Every structure is written in structure tokens, then in C-alpha cells.
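assembly run, all chains below
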Amino acid sequence: MEPESPALPVPKIEVKNFSAFYGKTQALHNVDFTIYEGKITAMIGPSGCGKSTFLRSLNRMNDFFLDFRVEGSATLDGEEIYGPAVNPVLIRQRVGMVFQKPNPFQKSIFENVAYGLRIQGVKSRSVLSDIVEKSLKAAALWDEVKDRLNGSAFSLSGGQQQRLCIARALAVEPEVILLDEPASALDPISTARIEELMQDLKDRYTIAIVTHNMQQAARVSDRTAFFLDGTLVEVNDTTKIFTNPEDPRTEDYITGRFG
Amino acid sequence: MAENVLPEKGLSVYRKVRNALLGALTAVAFVLAVTPLLAIIYVAYDRGKAALSLSFLTTLPGGFPVGIEGGIANGIVGSLILIVIASLLSVPVGVWAGLYLWDQSHTPLAKATRLLSDLLLGVPSVIWGVVGFYVFSTNTGYGFHWGFSGLAAGLTLGFIMIPIVTRVTEQALRDVPRSYIEGALALGASRFQVVRGLAIPAAITGIGTGILLGVLNVLGQTAPLIFTNYYNTGIPKNLVGSNGSVGDLAMQIFIYIHEPSKGLHVKAMAAALVLTVIVLLLDMGIRLLAWGSRKYAQRMG
Amino acid sequence: MGVTLESDTESNMNEGQTLAKEPLSTLSAVPSPTLSASSPGLQPNTPDSTSEQGSRTKSVLRDLRKVSTQRIHRSERIFQGTLLVGGLFVLALFATVLGVSLVEAWPSITKFGWSFLWTSTWNPHRHIFGAWTYIVGTFWVTGIALLFAIPIAILSSLFLSDYSPKWLVGAVSTLMEMLAGIPSIVFGAFGIIFMVPLLRDHVEPFLANTLGRHWDFFNGDAMGYGILAAGLVVGIMVIPLVATVTRDSLVMVPRETVEASYALGSTKAEMVFFVKLPAVVPGIIGSVILGFGRAIGETMAVLLLIGNQASIPTSIQDVGYTISSLLANTFTYAVIDPLYSAAEIELGLILLVISLVVNTLGRELLMKLMGGRLAGSVGGG
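ok done. output:
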């Protein structure tokens, strides 16, 4: 039996010579990085290293800081994310995000998941119910909430709320899902469920996760990138990073010498 | 995922228009909301400028109908007298009550008092007028029998100021950092010493702001005056009893505008401009005071 | 040592700024004699003589301390008692307001009973009094005011919280807040000089010619004065209050909630309308209630503009009377007649009760949202 040759990884987001600034402070220095389709890419590094800034740059959430600007290239399927004619709203429809602290809306569970669809004009109740159910199932939350879809989102536990946020993001059918330390506010069991979830979603979506938990990155991701002081120090297959890193700084971080 | 149920991923024209529309509407609404302020100043100036001059502020009204000649000195002086009387009553009482609420903050009696003090904030001005009438002015019954007088009106305005000063005093004391107070108490200082030497001085700007806020509020009050003082075209020699009324800027505007004389209307608008300017200056003064004290507090850490 | 003094400690401990007496004892300036007696190298006496001497000193000092703490306790108590008087003043003031209103309205309350509320006759000569006309008038003016003010105020508050350019925010907020400080009489005068001619010569004929052709509600003799003039001016006065309080609630929506909406690909309008506004509904209701409370108490502007006729308005161009403007206008004539004045004060009592209830409701709603500080609404002038 021949071993199957692995499919060639397809770049989804490519970042070249990318720098980011808040006013005079430079938060990211000349980052070169590719995020591949259908894979989970983790970004690790000590606090303040710029990994969150980088993640948020990908769906233009940093635009809300008035003095934020970028240099270099960041493309989604070859199109510049920061192109002059690009409407960030469209980017965010294709690149979804889940935040560190679960942030459901003050609405019912159903309406939370349906929100992204409603604003795009979907009105039909049956279509909405359909997609809401699919999304909640994909987020492994359906069984727990199917009887109380009209209940408040705040009646859910922290872990459930986070899965609700994931379902909400999935409902919009993004191509990429960005997760910014999604489990750091959760208990270990909820964390494990979310990690399981990521594996399930991997094939259909491109996933990028920022985490301060190295073990999580090692468990979950295919590729890992190590950031330090706004620079991308090293990026490689996860196994390689954690067993045989090339850069001494990566090794120091992984072995716990700092951070 | 299954069939593409999203209309077309994108930003429809409808959504774009809706977005721009809301932005435009909020700006329009804001302009509408704020225009009256500018309109009032403009109209008052435009219709009243004929009467404006330095002597307008310093001469008493005269002629017939009274006011057609002269100025509004009676109103300015009268208003000042009323504010002084009102403050003399409301500042001690209000600060005292505010101290009580701050010190005994969690006792049920204090909670009840705080509630009542806040309720007093919502009493309509005509009611204050009625109360002032029966307590101070009327010549029969249980009150002071002072007749229509400056003292009666001043004290009634003081009543209005009391809940304002109380509330702001309590808030200002609360803003004094706990560690500051505890440091003193831990050294064996008595409550009285702490209050006198530390808490009040630290809260003094806040309290001062509160007093000015109270003044700002009663400066333009007309209704309570109708019941307790009415009006005087000159400056009285006494504040109680017959001829004890004072003039008042707000009351003056009311009386002048009520008369069908065009000349008086001009004076009324001029007086209205003066009153508005005073109010706006006072308002800005209060803001500067509050801003300044915040800066000071920041430096204190 | 500590034990003794703790038993002296008053259970007069409150939370907040007042602390217990414990600190006094633990940081007492008087050194502990037992400590010095047992400290190494200080008093190499025999244990017996030391402890005897030590315990005598101990008890003398303990007594001294007891005396001084008691003195401190008593002066503290006196001080706190004095403070209480301040609180009592406020209670007395409230009792006075309520008491005077009740006492002076009493003759009317007993004479007319509950029917006072719905009787519309008001005849001082025949001594027949009923509140209905004025209650209706008050609600007409307030209704017009709120109808006009609420949309503008809410949209303005959105401008203040979300749509104004950052560098302008301070200035525009200040502008709005300053509007709130302008006295009612100035608005009234402005109303007479500006609003009345505007309504009389332009707006009211226009209404009569357009909507008035279909609905009699919009017809009438265009006089300028009336519930429309009063309502609009009161509305202008209420806008800053509703806008600033609503703005305060809007500003409190957490950043994460806003970001969640954007991350799902929403426009700013969608975020504001479908996420932010629904999240602050209690705050909006609270601000509207406060605005309502301010509007019903408004006196001077109404007095100058409403036309002061005791009739129940049937069209928007009609004149009318509100409780507050009636009182301000006629009380000085009514005083000579005990029943007349009592009836007017009963009207005032009705207004007072409604104001108190409304203001409490509004505050409670907003306290729940904001906990603590409020840009207090102070009764209109």
C-alpha cells in the first residue's frame, strides 16, 4: 500500500513585510507569514508580543483605534485586506472572530446566532431556524439549548456562552475563523470542549488561534508561530516548533525560561 | 455547508444607505436640539440690543409704564440678595445633611433621608411657591407672616437649594479616597477631627461646585417668587414686611414680557440676554472648577 | 491587653468611612508594659517583683486608656448626634412640603372627594371645582412635548455617544448640557417673541390647510398661543435632559458587545440600532420618565404660551391650562377664598404626587443601570 501523498497546503491568508503602528508606537515589525486553508495555525508568545494585534489586523478590527495604521501586504485569497477600496464589513463576513471573553448580545440564544444573518437581510423564519440549528450543532451546543432557544443568552454558563459565540460566528459562513484566546476565561472542561470543537471544524474552515497556553497550541494546531516583541521569530509545523525549534528564543520561551 | 442561503455575501445598497442615513439623522437631530440655544441668544440679542448698554445694568427702571426708561439694576441687585439669603440657609443645612448621609451612610434612617432628599429634587416649582407662601408670606396661619418679601422668597429658594447641596456634598465626601480617611482614623483621630480637618477640605471643591449648581438652578426661578415676593421696581430698604419685596431678574423678564408694550418687550429681551449670559458663565465656571479639581486630585494620586 | 480594649469597643461600627476603635488600641501611643518587662536585657529583676510592678502599671495605664476612650466615645457620640440634626432638617423639609400641601388642600379634599379628579367644572363664584380640565391640559402639553422631544433627544444622544467626531465630543456634550441650564422664563419669553408669531402666521395656517382638511384635530383659529406653542417649547427644554441621560446609558455598553457586532460583519448603523439601543432600553425608558417629570412641572414657559383658558383642548390649535400654570397665574387671587385656594392646592397636590412618583420611577430605573451618580433632574421653573 502506498502512503497517500499529502495534499499541497493552500495559502488562505498571506502576510508579507507587514507592520502595524498605533500612532508612533510600532506594534508589529515586518511580519512574513502564511496561514493555510483547512489547517489550524496557532500564535504564541509572551504578553504584549503583538500576537493579538496581528490577529485583529486580519479582520480589520484594529480599524477602530483611530491612530492605527499598517504597512506591507496582507491578502485574503490573494486580495489585499487593506486595499483602498476594500470595505471592512465584507472582510469581516469572510473572516469571523471569537473573542477572549464571551460576549453574547443581550438577546435570546436564537437571536444571537441569527444576528449575522438578519443584518444581511435574511428574514424567512424557516431559513433562520435551519441555519441556527446547524450552527449550534456545529458548535456542539445544540443539545444543551434546543429547548430554550428563546431564553436569554446570559442564562448560559461561561463555556456555553463561548460556544454560542462560536455558533454565532459560524452562522455567517465565514471562510476563516480567528480565535483570540478563546478559552482563557473558561474552566478546563469547557476548554477541552472548545479544543475538540476546533478539530471538528478544521476541515471546513481555516482556523487561526492566539493562545498564551503552549500546551493548548501543541495539542490543537498544525502550525505554530512564535511572536516576540512585535516580530515573528519562527513559524513552522507544530511538532517541529515544540520538539526542535530553530531559533534559540523560541526554545527559551517553550522551555519556560521566560514569558 | 449546504446551499448558499445568504442573498449574496456583500453589502447591499440598502444596508449602505441605511448606514449613511442613520449617521445623517443623528447629526441633524443634534443640530435641531442645539439650535434653540443659539436661536435664543440670537433673538434675545436681536430684539433686545437697542436697550443694551452699561447703564442698562446700573440704572433703576422708571417712566410709565414702569420700566420703559431706565434699566434692570433692581433685578440684578434683587437677584443677588435672594441668592445670598438662599445660600445662607441652604449651605449650612445642605452640607450638614450631606455630612450626615455620608457618615451614617448605611443606617436605615440615612437611607430614608437620602430618598426623601432626592424626592425633594423633583418637587415642581409651583409647589415650592405654595409652601413658601404658607410658611413665610401669608399673614394668617402658622407661618412667619412676613408678607411678600425678599426674605420669604430668599428662604423659599433656599429650600429648593437644600436637596441639591445635600446630594452634592454627600457625593463629594464619598469621592474622598477611603485610604485617606482611614489613615487619619488609624492614627487615633476622632471623627470630628477627621471631618473638620480632612474630609471637608478634601471635598471642598465638590461642595463648592454643588453650591454653584444650586445657585444656577434658583437663579432663573420665577414661580416661587410669584407666591412669596412678587416684584419691586426699586431696591428695598428692608427685607421683611410691607415694601419688603425685591426685584428679580427672572421676574422682571416675566413682567415686562407680559405687558403689551413693545418698548418693554425690548427691555425684556435685553434682560433675558443678560440672564442667559450670567447662567452660561456660571455653568462654564462650574465646569472649570470641576475640571480643575479633577486635575488636582489626579496629581494627588 | 487587646482583649480588654475590645470589650470596650463600641459596637458602633459602621461600614464606610467610620472605623472601629480597634485601631485606636493597636496603635495606641502608650507602650505595653509587659513588652518592656519581658524584653531582653532591660529589666533583669526576679519574675515575681517584675510582674507585680508590671501588673500595677498595667492596670493604671489600662484605666487611663479606658477613661480616654470613654471620653472619646462620648464626644464621638455627641458629634454623630449633631450630624443627625442635619438629616432631620431634610426630613422636616419634606414633611413641610407634604404637610402644607395636605393641610391647605384639606377643605377641598373633604368637600369634593374623589370626584374632584374627573369633574371638569371650575367655577370660583359658585364654588364648584374640578381638576379634570387641568389634568387634561397638563397631559396635552406634556404629550406634545414628549412626542417632539423623544425622537430628537434619542438621535442626539446617539450623536453624542457614537457619531460625533472624537475631537468634538467634549464641545458638543457641553453645548447640550448648557442648554439644560437656561431658565424657563427665558424660554417663555423666546416663545412669545419667536414661536407664537411663527405658529400663528405660518405653521398653524399650514396645518389647517393640509391635514386640517381631513381631520378636524388640526383645525382651529390660528392664534399662535395654545397647547402647541407650550408643548413645543417645553419639548425643547426637555430634549437636553433626555439626551444626556440616554447618552450616559449608551456610553456604558461594553466594548466587547460592540466589537462582537462588527466582527459579524455589521455596519455601524446595524450595531447601533440592533445591538446598542436594545441593550439600553431601560435607560431610555428611565430618561423619558425623567423628561416626563420635568415637563409636567414646567410652569413659566407654559404660563406665557398656553393661552390660559380653562377649556379642554379638542384640536392641536386650541388653548388650554395646565395645573402649574393655573396655580402660578391665579393663586394670588384665590387666596382670599379658602375653598378656592384649597381647590387650587389640591390641584397642586395632584401634581406633586404625580411628580414624586414619576421621578422616583425614573431614578430607580436608572440607578439599576448606572448605580450611583445621576445627572439629577431638578424640578422645572
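The CA atoms of residues 87 and 158 of chain B lie 6 Å apart.

Residues 262-300 of chain B form the longest helix (39 residues).

not gonna interpret more than that til we talk
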